[in-house]
Design goal:
- The chain is mostly helical.
- 70% of the residues lie in helices and 0% in strands.
Length: 200
């Protein structure tokens, strides 16, 4: 994972259309105030949003609040979803704006524990220790980035989104996404190299 983050990146392939078609169907039902459809969408997006938000900020209270606020907006404003972009793009855009707002309004001590799912859940003790050390190293390195840079890096490397889709989520031109990625990756590379050398 660290090697992947340090290497240059290209726009990844788009997600499967079948997944978005399912999301579209759920959204149509949510517009009709179908609570079961909302619960199904919540189950799909809760882990994805938790991972995204946890990599944008390591503050647990902000993560939980932003996640809940995001899904509340999805429920309340489902009828405003126009279908011009993927459901995932629309939801991640809401989450991005929500977490940035929370970060601007809250001043809370940082506990860098937001990085997860970097290895298999059933890893042995040695693998678990390596995983924990890798998580701590990556979390500390990500913390050197601005929230805007972190979001771009996370959406690219951890969610395999293309720059065009990320631009819609963070509401900026594609060139701005590329600039944030360039500077974010450069700062991340420097931070990771420094921490890896210190631990060797």
């Amino acid at each position: 994972m660290l090697r992947k983050l340090l290497a240059p990146t290209q726009a990844p392939p788009s997600p499967r259309r079948s997944a978005d078609a399912h999301d579209q169907s759920l959204m149509a039902s949510i517009v009709a105030r179908d609570l079961r459809a909302f619960e199904a969408l919540y189950r799909i997006y809760h882990p994805r949003l938790a991972r995204f938000l946890g990599l944008v900020t390591p503050r647990p209270t902000i993560i939980e609040e932003a996640l809940n606020d995001t899904m509340l907006v999805v429920w309340r404003r489902a009828a405003t979803y126009s279908g011009e972009c993927k459901v995932s793009t629309w939801i991640f855009a809401i989450a991005y704006r929500t977490v940035l707002k929370a970060l601007r309004t809250q001043d809370e001590p940082v506990d860098a524990t937001g990085v997860d799912e970097l290895a298999c859940e059933d890893a042995g003790p040695e693998q678990a220790a390596i995983r924990q050390q890798t998580q701590a190293t990556l979390a500390s390195a990500l913390d050197t980035l601005s929230a805007e840079q972190r979001a771009v890096v996370v959406l690219t490397y951890f969610h395999d989104l293309a720059y065009a889709e990320i631009a819609r989520i963070v509401d900026c031109p594609v060139d701005t996404v590329k600039t944030r990625m360039f500077h974010g990756r450069r700062r991340l590379r420097a931070a990771l190299h420094g921490r890896l050398e210190a631990s060797s």
